[in-house]
Amino acid sequence: MVINEDILHSVGANIKEYKASENIFNEGDYPNYYYQIITGEVKLNNYNEDGKESIQTLLESGESIGESMLFMDKHYPMNATAITNCEIFKLPKHVFFNLLKECPEISQDINVFLSQRVYYGLIMSQNLGNQNPAAKLKTLMDYLKSFQEEQSPYSFRVPLTRQQMASLTGLCVETTIRTIKGMERDQLVRIKDRKILY
């Protein structure tokens, strides 16, 4: 969790509910609020001229949404869309900055969170240049698993659909499905009840 929920309540953050597929903000909007997910899942995405979706990242409970844009005088370069029904804290930008001034430890937590995002962005951008689909998917799974304590083989259940994995790695869905089957044959992953164990 980026900011403790009790602290967000104490400074008057509103709780807003979003239905699945509803946008929290749109590409081109100006960032006026700090958002933090209470329940549900959110994706940051764009669409190209042909309408093809590109997912930048997937977020879940306890994570903040697009917080880096609050530190710049720029419009959002992406959409934030609820994947599931969500409850989200919404805190005005000026209150958020007052909170950072009053609580340096929160500022430190935000820096750690932003650093993780930058690291993920670098790993995934390097990965996009890789032509090997299995290497792309393995890099994604390695990154996701790196946050788990248990690191033994097949101990991590990948929390993504094949479609989401395809979007995050720049692969088509068919290639992703075929590659995962190959990874299972090579004993890099196990499939149980259609879920990938890595």
Automatic annotation (TrEMBL):
GO terms for cellular component: cytosol. GO terms for molecular function: DNA binding; DNA-binding transcription factor activity; kinase activity. Keywords: DNA-binding, Kinase, Transcription, Transcription regulation, Transferase. SUPFAM superfamilies: cAMP-binding domain-like, Winged helix' DNA-binding domain. InterPro entries: cNMP-bd_dom (IPR000595), cNMP-bd_dom_sf (IPR018490), Env_Response_Regulators (IPR050397), HTH_CRP (IPR012318), RmlC-like_jellyroll (IPR014710), WH-like_DNA-bd_sf (IPR036388), WH_DNA-bd_sf (IPR036390). Gene3D superfamilies: Jelly Rolls, Winged helix-like DNA-binding domain superfamily/Winged helix DNA-binding domain. Residues 16-117 form the Cyclic nucleotide-binding domain. This is cAMP-binding domain of CRP or a regulatory subunit of cAMP-dependent protein kinases.
